[in-house]
């Protein structure tokens, strides 16, 4: 195994896709379900004010007169992290998760580290482009024997707090948690997110998973597995 990277954070902040969960899995399983079920979901709920608002936000963001469902499906094909798409995806997934047709996914090394850190008392927070509804469905419905792992997390942020590639989002997150940005350790596979977080004063770690084709970036400390990380200040001395 590579030499350990040692940090002493008060709080850990985690990206999901590409970092603790597989991006190819999300695309093949969750996005496929969304592509197949989004048109029917919207057609059955044209009078729902939440759906209407998402459709009008979609048209406003697209800036054209195309059918907003077509726009959403186009964004999905590009994996564009557009807020209206990210909002409706969780709503469409509810039925898939509740009926067991959908399951979440975690990399084994990430799940083991998060369990270890949670047991040591480390507050673990999520910041993902997926809506908080999507995140909680995902963590509540991991395959057996893992099951529901929502207990691991102290809380969740989505892009309601700001875009993941914008620096002020990370300052807002630190303020909302009540932690010094310098003590908030952020893990992500996306260098643009790491640049934004670094500018806000957060220490960062680049998660480079060969199976996802993530490229190294000399600007950041990197890991291929969460087993390479040591949090030297946890558990706290009594
Ligand atoms: C489990 S949330 C669904 C994943 C998703 O749609 C997404 O966009 C995740 O992006 P991330 O910011 O976690 O890389
Ligand atoms: Mg990611």
TrEMBL record:
Q: What class of enzyme is it?
A: hydrolase
Keyword hit for Magnesium: yes
The Swiss-Prot or TrEMBL record lists the needed cofactor(s) as:
Mg(2+)
Entry keyword Metal-binding: yes
Alphabetic keyword roster: Amino-acid biosynthesis, Hydrolase, Magnesium, Metal-binding, Methionine biosynthesis
Free-text cofactor note: Binds 1 Mg(2+) ion per subunit.
Q: In which pathway does it act?
A: Amino-acid biosynthesis; L-methionine biosynthesis via salvage pathway; L-methionine from S-methyl-5-thio-alpha-D-ribose 1-phosphate: step 3/6; Amino-acid biosynthesis; L-methionine biosynthesis via salvage pathway; L-methionine from S-methyl-5-thio-alpha-D-ribose 1-phosphate: step 4/6
Q: GO terms for molecular function, please?
A: 2,3-diketo-5-methylthiopentyl-1-phosphate enolase activity; 2-hydroxy-3-keto-5-methylthiopentenyl-1-phosphate phosphatase activity; acireductone synthase activity; magnesium ion binding
Q: What is its EC number?
A: 3.1.3.77
Q: Which Pfam families does the annotation name?
A: Hydrolase
Catalytic activity, reaction form: 5-methylsulfanyl-2,3-dioxopentyl phosphate + H2O = 1,2-dihydroxy-5-(methylsulfanyl)pent-1-en-3-one + phosphate
GO terms in the biological process aspect are: L-methionine salvage from methylthioadenosine
Q: Which PANTHER family match?
A: ENOLASE-PHOSPHATASE E1 (PTHR20371)
- Protein purpose: Bifunctional enzyme that catalyzes the enolization of 2,3-diketo-5-methylthiopentyl-1-phosphate (DK-MTP-1-P) into the intermediate 2-hydroxy-3-keto-5-methylthiopentenyl-1-phosphate (HK-MTPenyl-1-P), which is then dephosphorylated to form the acireductone 1,2-dihydroxy-3-keto-5-methylthiopentene (DHK-MTPene).
The record's similarity note reads: Belongs to the HAD-like hydrolase superfamily. MasA/MtnC family.
This protein is called: Enolase-phosphatase E1
**Organism of this sequence:** Kaistia hirudinis
């Amino acid at each position: 195994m590579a030499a350990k990277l040692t940090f002493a954070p008060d709080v850990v902040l985690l990206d999901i896709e590409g970092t603790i969960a597989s991006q190819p899995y999300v695309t093949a399983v969750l996005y496929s379900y969304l592509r197949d079920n989004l048109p029917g979901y919207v057609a059955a709920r044209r009078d729902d004010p939440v759906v209407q608002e998402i459709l009008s936000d979609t048209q406003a963001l697209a800036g054209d007169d195309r059918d907003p469902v077509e726009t959403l499906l186009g964004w999905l094909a590009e994996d564009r992290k557009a807020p209206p798409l990210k909002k409706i995806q969780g709503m469409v997934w509810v039925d898939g998760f509740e009926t067991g047709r959908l399951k979440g996914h975690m990399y084994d090394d990430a799940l083991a580290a998060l369990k270890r850190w949670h047991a040591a008392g480390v507050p673990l927070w999520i910041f993902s482009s997926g809506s908080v509804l999507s995140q909680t469905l995902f963590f509540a419905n991991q395959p057996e024997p893992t099951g529901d792992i929502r207990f691991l997390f102290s809380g969740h942020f989505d892009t309601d707090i700001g875009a993941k590639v914008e620096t002020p989002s990370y300052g807002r997150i630190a303020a909302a948690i009540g932690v010094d940005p310098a003590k908030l350790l952020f893990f992500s596979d996306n260098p643009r997110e790491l640049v934004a977080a670094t500018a806000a004063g957060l220490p960062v770690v680049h998660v480079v998973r060969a199976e996802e084709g993530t490229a190294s970036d000399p600007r950041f400390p990197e890991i291929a597995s969460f087993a390479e990380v040591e949090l030297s200040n946890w558990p706290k001395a009594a």
